[in-house]
Amino acid sequence: MVSAVFYIFYAGVTNTFNKTLWIALLLMGLEIIALLLNKWICPFTTLAKKYTDDYEKNNFDIYLPAWLAGNNKSFFSILFTFGFILVVFNFIKN
Fold this sequence. Notes:
Elements: H1 2-14, H2 19-37, H3 43-49, H4 66-69, H5 72-93
Helix pairs in contact: 1-2, 1-5
């Protein structure tokens, strides 16, 4: 998902429209739907909590540094939103 967010941002900045962009947008759309249906909590987090006692750490279920894992929704939401706005703007402009 991090790759999809970065690619959407990259595509927005470079005005790139290709199959990879549409796949990344589809993946992010599915991710957003999954989060909305699960009260803004990743379904895999709920699953992972069953298999560890270490779930108090921000990065117990994700391979990111703890400082980023604690803020990943904010950071990646901003990056995705900015990239998505650029993609839409460039799509309309072209």
